[in-house]
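In this section we walk through a basic example: taking a raw amino acid sequence and producing a predicted 3D structure, encoded as discrete structure tokens. The instruction is simple. Fold the sequence below.
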Amino acid sequence: MAGAILANDAWEALLSAHAGLMKQFAAQDIWQDLSMREYDVLYTLSKCPAPERMGELNRHLLLSQPALSRMVDRLVDRGLVQRQTDPADGRGVLLALTDAGLALQRQIGRRHARGVARAMTQELTPAELRQLEALCLKLARTPAPTK
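The resulting token sequence is shown next.
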């Protein structure tokens, strides 16, 4: 029972830290005419080595499939994301940043990275940051349960 309490306390602390940091980042005047979620889509696509299928993109984001589809539609309409036919499967669609989308992601990303660095180094030492990264990477490797 003590293990379950400890695990739940750690989980609540992680969620509280995430929520507080996200509110702090959302309040920054760096997002231009993007929402943080729209930026997250641009950021995620910028990290992909090749155009990505919608389902694969969705694995990296905290959005429902319908919400992501609507958001991608808006980003396509704004010229920030492009759809491409999947050459391996003509029925499939791949998503990639346009040049304008990549430029905007980098512009906002530089400011966001400075804000993240400020927030994280304000409270944590370099050793604690390395420990936090190691712990989060360990948790991220936990396989999703099978249905």
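Looking at the output, two observations stand out. Residues 2-26 form the longest helix (25 residues). The mean pLDDT is 92. In the next section we compare this with other chains.
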